[in-house]
Specification:
Number of helices: 4
Strand order of the largest sheet: 1-4
Number of strands: 4
Shape: rod-shaped
Organism: Bernardetia litoralis (strain ATCC 23117 / DSM 6794 / NBRC 15988 / NCIMB 1366 / Fx l1 / Sio-4) (Flexibacter litoralis)
Order of helices and strands: HHHEEEEH
Protein name: Polyhydroxyalkanoate synthesis regulator phasin
InterPro entries: PhaF_PhaI
Radius of gyration: 29 Å
Helix content: over 70%
Length: about 120
């Protein structure tokens, strides 16, 4: 899903970039043919970039809203919920007599050994 969104954004940026180049070429041609003054050409290009920036901000807002809706629809656990569940698991493991821990920084699960087996060693 994230790759799709990235591709969409990059495609949009590419289209705007190509359009800006073509606009600049057209303006340069019109200026060289004296159909437009250099100031008028600069103003036209500046207006294009201003409009593009506004549309970019609108698009980012809409995209952010869509992503938020998608995340809410999947009902992902929040960081707070994950932390609460982790604490519950640790408590349950301690109550069940299981020795071991989860190394969250490496996201690596260490093999858990029952307390009786540890005591027998």
């Amino acid at each position: 899903m994230e790759d799709l969104l990235k591709k969409l954004v990059y495609t949009g940026v590419g289209v705007v970039s190509i359009t800006a180049e073509k606009l600049q070429e057209a303006v340069d041609k019109m200026v060289s043919e004296r159909k437009m003054s250099a100031d008028e050409g600069k103003k036209l290009v500046d207006e294009f970039f201003d409009t593009t920036e506004e549309k970019k901000k609108e698009f980012e807002g809409q995209l952010s809203s869509i992503v938020e809706k998608i995340v809410r629809s999947f009902k992902f656990a929040s960081n707070k919920e994950v932390n609460e569940l982790t604490e519950r698991i640790k408590t349950l493991e301690a109550n069940a007599g299981i020795v071991g821990e989860v190394e969250q920084s490496e996201k690596k699960v260490v093999k858990k050994t029952p307390a009786k087996a540890v005591a027998a060693k």
